[in-house]
Write a structure and sequence with these properties.
The protein is an alpha/beta fold. It contains 8 helices and 9 strands. α1 crosses α2. The longest helix has 22 residues. The chain is elongated.
Length: about 260
């Protein structure tokens, strides 16, 4: 029964993709994040079948896998034999993800193209260099030297649960206050606020219900502001927006003037 259900979904997806390709005279497709089989076991094989049938080139790009991918891959892949499209390029953003891909699909990625800096080498920085970086960030944002900083690096999304970081900061601040320790807890949210994401919703496992943080980036941002105010942390939170190499230059320039 499961096999029949899967084949039906596969065929529907394959036919819909084929119709879309023909209707728009598409010759090259850029497919981002469709290789996580635990999230979506249908789209990748359906796209492969449609691309091969219509001789379309597909560039697959993957920037993360979920932990359960490898655990579930055998049961998922066994549902439908998946072959690499004749005209395809597979790109990953890290060697780790490329290795996971090889274990799952049985062949190597064509290219590993990192976002920018290889942060796996951050440990190469000396202790003095790291301390200097921390001091510059504190000075730029007017954060007290003895404040505890919680960093939440991600885009504004219900999936990323920034509200949990706020709750952690509230609990920690309450404890410091009870112990009469004159220290503040600050939160730095580093990530895009306006990204045009209209459906960044999340689902509670096994319940099929959207949690209270479902919504687009700006909607989540506004909810976070309300949550910060309710927790008494509005003056101890910073939203940096998108962090790029230019962001570091901005800090450097500000501290030199």
């Amino acid at each position: 029964e499961l096999q029949q259900l899967y084949e039906r979904e596969f065929e529907n997806c394959r036919d819909a993709l084929s119709a879309w390709i023909k209707e728009n005279n598409i010759t090259v497709i850029y497919a981002d994040q469709v290789l996580s089989v635990s999230e979506d076991p249908v789209t990748y094989p359906a796209l492969c079948a449609a691309a091969d049938a219509l001789q379309v080139t597909v560039i697959f790009r993957q920037h993360y896998y979920t932990v359960s991918d490898i655990e579930r891959v055998v049961s998922v892949i066994n549902l439908m034999s998946v072959k690499r499209p004749q005209r395809s390029i597979f790109v990953h953003v890290s060697p780790i993800d490329a290795e996971i891909f090889r274990k799952i699909y049985g062949f190597a990625a064509d290219l590993v193209l990192p976002y920018s800096k290889d942060f796996t080498r951050i440990s190469d920085l000396s202790s003095a260099a790291r301390q200097k970086m921390k001091k510059r960030v504190r000075k730029f944002y007017d954060i007290p030297k003895d404040a505890i900083i919680l960093l939440h690096p991600s885009r504004m999304s219900g999936l990323k649960r920034q509200d949990r970081t706020i709750e952690l900061a509230r609990l920690l601040q309450d404890r410091l206050n009870r112990e009469n320790r004159n220290r503040k807890v600050w939160i730095i949210f580093a990530g895009i606020i306006k990204n045009g994401n209209k459906s960044a919703s999340a689902v509670i496992p096994h319940k099929g219900q959207q949690h209270s943080w479902a919504g687009g980036a700006e909607e989540v941002y506004l909810k976070l502001l309300d949550t910060l105010q309710a927790a008494g942390l509005s003056s101890q939170a910073i939203f940096t927006g998108e962090v790029t190499p230019r962001h570091k230059e901005k800090i450097d320039e500000s501290l030199l003037t």
